[in-house]
Amino acid sequence: MNGTEHEPFMRRALAVAKRAWGDTHPNPLVGAVIVEDGAVVAEGFHARAGEAHAEINALRALGRAPKPGATLYVTLEPCCTHGRTPPCTDAIVDAGITRVVVGATDPNPAHAGHGFDVLRAAGVEVVAGVLAAECADLNLIFNHWIVRRTPLLAAKSGVTLDGKVATRTGDSKWITGEAARADAHRWRRGFPAIAVGAGTVRADNPRLTARVEGVEWCPWRFVFDGLLRTVLDQHLPGLYTDEFRERTIVVTTQHGGLGYVRKLNALGVKTWVLASPSPKVNFPDFRRRCAEEGITGVFFEGGAQLISELLQARELDYLFTYHAPVLFADDKGKAIFRGLRTETLAAAVRLEQVRHEIHGDDALMRGFVRYPERMCVDEAAFTRRTLLE
Predict the structure, then answer these.
(1) Each residue's pLDDT tens digit in the chain (389 positions)?
(2) Which is catalytic among the residues 55, 77, 301, 309?
């Protein structure tokens, strides 16, 4: 078989891996299929941390010894060390598999490629790098976590062709269509946490759950509210009173007042009070706290002020932007990003490893954020614009 002939089976392994979408944190999504005589005879996936890996589940699903010449396809390099489960490389060798085709290499620098070495030393043929980009993309959150040991901070926006998220009057529902919004819910399901700012909570009273195929699921829900403005209202947001309130965390500062913190805690809502010289939450401290709590990724959904502050602090790692075939052409329309002073193209923020997708009439562009060496933040202009809004 050449690389192209391997691709249909690897695509099947990718599809199998996605059955556990959102359930495996902090572990990766992994799918495996066993092929005999050109046909898939068994498949398995890693369901959640602490449980059997995809390769083991595929071998169990087969329920017998593989035929001579059987091939195991797996989206991620098999583990070769003993963690919460035994090494998959041992199970593969013991089962009599003589060829393993792999998508992505283990991103952990301490392990990368070692699983291949173990298999080859045991006489197993290894073919690596089949649909490697697609297999790596499957685990954006895990890859960032395992290499950097910090959460992936991603932002999502739905914008017009000229980059606006609302009209001058604030009208924004809905810029993107149903297909794009459904895909955004799929990504909500894929992240362990969602975040919004106080302005979004007060204006929209969002539920911040993932609704996929008729099933509602609640991740950790972060509300960034340095002054605890969301607690001042007579009618508290649903995030603080609904059945998922114990999965809500309000991220605030000492400027918000301990009385409001106690009120939230009495409702069952968690609070993170992070030290800051101003009512703005310190993003590096937030990132560190997430790492301490084992939260490996956060999906920021707005508003524009919060996401702009994240960008200005150079703490935004990944960006999802859904572009709708809509044009405002209005200088007073509200833009998703602001607060930078970009005078040359060399000083622009760019995306890397960009992927493009079509969802209905809308186009998704997503990728890792790359910052210029020097990035000028126009704090005064940003503050004036924020106060006006």
Answers:
(1) 556 899 999 999 999 999 999 999 999 999 999 999 999 999 999 999 999 999 999 999 999 999 999 999 999 999 988 777 788 999 999 999 999 999 999 998 878 899 999 999 999 999 999 999 999 999 999 999 999 999 999 999 999 998 898 888 887 788 999 999 999 999 999 999 999 999 899 888 899 999 888 889 999 999 999 999 999 877 889 999 999 999 999 999 999 888 999 999 999 999 999 999 999 999 999 999 999 999 999 999 978 899 999 999 999 999 999 999 999 988 888 888 888 888 889 889 999 999 999 999 999 999 999 999 877 776 555 454 443 34
(2) 55
- In 283-349, DSSP assigns E strands to 297-300, 318-323, 334-335
C-alpha distance from residue 319 to each of 62, 155, 181, 212, 289 (Å): 40, 5, 16, 21, 22
Treating both helix axes as pointing N-terminal to C-terminal, what angle do 54-62 and 3-17 enclose, rounded to 10 degrees?
100
Half-sphere exposure of 386 (CA within 13 A, CB side): 20
Name beta bridge partners: 76.
104
CA dihedral of residues 7, 9, 14, 19 (deg, nearest 10): 160
Tell me, yes or no, if 55 is annotated catalytic. Answer: yes
Selection from 266, 152, 244, 260 nearest residue 198 by Cα: 260
Side-chain-side CA neighbours of 71 within 13 Å: the count stands at 20
Confirm whether pTM is higher than 0.85.
Answer: yes
